[in-house]
Amino acid sequence: MNTFNTNKMRRVLNDSELEAQFQKQGYVSVPFISEKEVEELKQLFFDTLPDSGGQITSDDIKNEHFISYDFTFIDKNPAYKRKVYDIITAYFKPHMERLLDNYKPIIANYIRKKPETGEVPLHQNWAFSDEMKCSTVSIWCPLVEATVENGTLQVLPGSHKKFGKNRGPMVPWELEKIKDEIINNHMIPLETKAGDCVILDDSIIHYSAINKTEGLRLVIQLICIPKDMPSLHYHKIPAGNGNIEVLEVDENFYFEFNPWKFPTNVKKIGEEPFTVKYFSVLDFQNVMKAPRFDELKTIEDKRFFSKLFSVFKL
After folding, report:
1. What are the structural domains of the chain?
2. Least C-beta-crowded within 10 Å: which of 62, 172, 187, 257?
3. What is the mean pLDDT of residues 67-85?
4. Each residue of 198-220: pLDDT tens digit?
């Protein structure tokens, strides 16, 4: 049962009903942009595509991750990434401000799935600020109708603020070994009309399958954080004690960013201890029943959570 008190936490959405739904489920679905804006943004994707530098691949840096969809965030050309950011934020800003309570954008992406490819693995988005104090969100807006057949977004309702508090590049995920179990038994597909959007808490568990159609599946993602909160980046230290460094960044940081390289010349504001722990299905089920990590503000809550971790060896 979710007993979250929205008065304790910085609000996300201006509308109180949507806010309550968001805090309970971890997402809301709402109308967002016009048909005219959909067509213009679709055309701008193709107009700017010649400026793309291509995606960072294993030829550029050794990594075990293969990405089978086009994703602005990992393009090699910072100027292209900045151009896409400027285009998307110009279109989305008035709609974002109508829905969100004093948020600002930090990352903007076109995401294209070609036919018979484009699976996005089960994951949580990175943490982009202090999630004990706020929620960061992704606005996920398809430019074509998103269906089960073309690989629409799937979410696990109520999984936000439950797992992986300090998420970032190269940080092992505690659910890694049970991803298939979660995909096969717990995910809900969100079929979404072009121009509508899903606003999701970046900590919610989500996934999308391959595009099984012959058509284009093109989506925009805009990641936003509260204006009154610092923009943070969590990155696992590659050597030494294996802890996670907490870096203070801004939107410009991500234009030059390579997720598989440790950032340099960035302001460090802290370090979080980290030990790899992989969950069993039973662990997962019990954490889903437990309080959110941002609810654990009383001694009683902390004792409960410590006992839970002890009993289930989390």
Report:
1. 6-278 (2.60.120.620)
2. 62
3. 87
4. 999 999 999 999 999 999 899 99
Phi and psi torsions of 237, nearest 5°: -70, 125
Cβ-proximal residues to 149 (8 Å cutoff; 6+ apart), any chain = 211, 212, 213
* φ, ψ for residue 155, nearest 5 deg: -130, 160
Alpha-carbon dihedral angle through residues 254, 157, 19, 96, given to the nearest 10 degrees: 30
The pTM of this model reads 0.89
pLDDT band at 138 (very low <50, low <70, confident <90, very high): very high
DSSP string, 184-245: HHH-EE--B-TTEEEEEETTS-EEE----SSS-EEEEEEEEEETTS--EEEEE-SSTT--EE
Q: Tokens standing for 128?
A: 């982009």
For the chain, the first-to-last Cα distance in angstroms comes to 21
Q: By C-alpha distance, which of 202, 194, 60 is closest to 136?
A: 202
